[in-house]
Amino acid sequence: MLGWPDHDVLRACGATFVREETPRVVQLAGRTFSEGMLEHEIRKVDDDRFEAANQGRPNRTRRSTPS
């Protein structure tokens, strides 16, 4: 993703991965960082709509849980 460091850069900086798939979560210097949470939620809603239209889940997100 443009603007976000790749896995190699994060590891070189000493990051430890908590979650490697999008949205990635890393620990660095005792702090936890997460990327793109809003973007991920938007993609999940998009996938829900695609799936409702029998077009699959092109963003490969997990299904939303019913409230």
Characteristics:
single chain, 67 residues, alpha+beta, three-stranded antiparallel beta sheet, 2 helices, 3 strands
Main β sheet profile: 3 strands, antiparallel
Poorly predicted sequence stretches spanning 5 or more consecutive residues: none
Distance between the termini: 30 Å
Anisotropy-based shape: elongated
Number of helices: 2
> What is the string of SSEs from the N terminus onward?
HEEEH
Proportion of beta-strand residues: 15-25%
How many individual β-strands? Answer: 3
Summed over residues and divided by their number, the pLDDT gives a mean of 88
| Helix amount | 25-40%
Structural class: alpha+beta
Cross-sheet strand order for the largest sheet: 1-2-3
Q: Provide the gyration radius in Å.
A: 15 Å
Task: Report on this structure.
The model has no long low-confidence stretch (mean pLDDT about 90). This protein has helices spanning about 5-10, 35-50; strands spanning about 15-20, 25-30, 30-35. It is built from 2 helices and 3 strands. It has a domain at about 5-50. Strands 1-2-3 form a 3-stranded antiparallel β-sheet, with no helix packed on it. About 5% of the residues are buried. A hairpin with a 5-residue loop joins strand 1 (about 15-20) and strand 2 (about 25-30). By secondary structure, the protein is an alpha+beta fold.
